[in-house]
Input
Amino acid sequence: MENGIKTPIEKRIFTNRNLKLKTIKAVGFDLDYTLAKYISPAIEQLTFEKALEKLVKEKHYPKELLKFEYVENFAIRGLIFDIQYGNILKTNKFRYVKRVYHGFQKYPKKERKRLYTNKKVDLSTECYRAVDTLFEIPETYLFAKLIDHFDKSSVKSENSSYKWLYDDIRWAVDLVHRDGTLKNIIRENPEKYINKNELLPLALNHFKKNERKLFIVTNSDHKYTTFVLDFLLGKDFRDYFDVIVYSSSKPDFFAKSAPFKVISDGKCFEAERGNVHLLEAKLGFKGDSILYVGDHIYGDMLKTKQTSAWRTMMIIPELNEQLRIKQKVKGKVKKLIQLFELKNRTNRLLERTIEELNKLIRDKEDEFDNLNIQTVKQIDAKIEKLTLKQNHLNKKLTEVLTQIKEFEEEIDKSYNPYFGELFKEENELSLFGDQVLDFACTYTSDLTNILYYSPTEYFHTPMQLMPHDKEPEFMDIEVGEIGEN
Ligand SMILES: [Mg+2]
Output
């Protein structure tokens, strides 16, 4: 597959910062959602149900909650929990809140502005938490579902905090991950929850070319990781890797200095805990000669960047769906650009017309005593013509604005009925989009996409576009003239 003339768009690896594979001496992988891609919505459904069971059984939540069913397509990554108000927020890249849901109720603009205007969301405070990983998607839905339920069943005052609910949900979801509830069910029926990609062994061998070393750093424990690797790669999975680090406690792995707890010092070195420096010493390579492939914006991408010079490839499983929808709404987006241009032109013309009209009326008033009847008639005719033009332009502008709103809503809903596009918010980047751009050197939907590239590929950053580069003239978008009558 490598060196294909044209890689299908869904198989492409996109570049934020130039990356020369030729200079990479070791490639590391995360396990969950990187090597092991979980099947959606089966895994979310399971997490949702088991967390609810914990809440009912151990926190004495009402039994009727067990009837709740998981509904996919609610949450996306990059959303933020507002723990105090029980809201789910989507922000733009500047962390200004652009959308608010309370349960499944969207806040009207006025209410949103009242609560969040001039307030940048500070993720370092206790009030907010970002939805960084796909594992957090079901708990985001659970949060909305329970808020919806409890708000309907009891009266809430403006100041009642939802921290208790958030803490309980966090506790329940954490517990089903930690106490083996999910892992035991996955182990019994891995085909139902983990996508066994037949290309994975080929992809690992492809990464291995050029005598590269391969390694894994995962927060999952030894027992679960070895089970998943056995399922994905067979019992000889160790043959692919030089080092496997289990229970690594990322992001601390990159910042602290825990020792390795060695499990095996054979051809494939296996250990728990440890830290980035010990791993680099074991590999014999460090810094930018290492490429790390992971899915977690914070634990896998940001921390590697902050504390070491590792290069990164971010796995974004949602990317293919985003590309598919982008293709589908391409025509509508083009139409939207035309409409915006038409809006601007109509606005300018309207302002000019009003100015002209006002001047005429003023002149008529000032000079009235000196004007003959004929001139007054001529001026009145001009005023009438300009007033008609003004009315026409006003009507046109309202039409265009309505159309813009309709198109924007249609495009937005094609992505996600609640939160729209993953990487964008209105015309700006979303928090998630901005983080991907900032922290990942490259990104792609699946690590097996490497098979479409040479093992020594040079991933080039595409040409950066300034706003002037995106004017309709440069994008081959025709904007019609505005009729004046
Ligand atoms: Mg992961």
Observations:
- The radius of gyration is 29 Å.
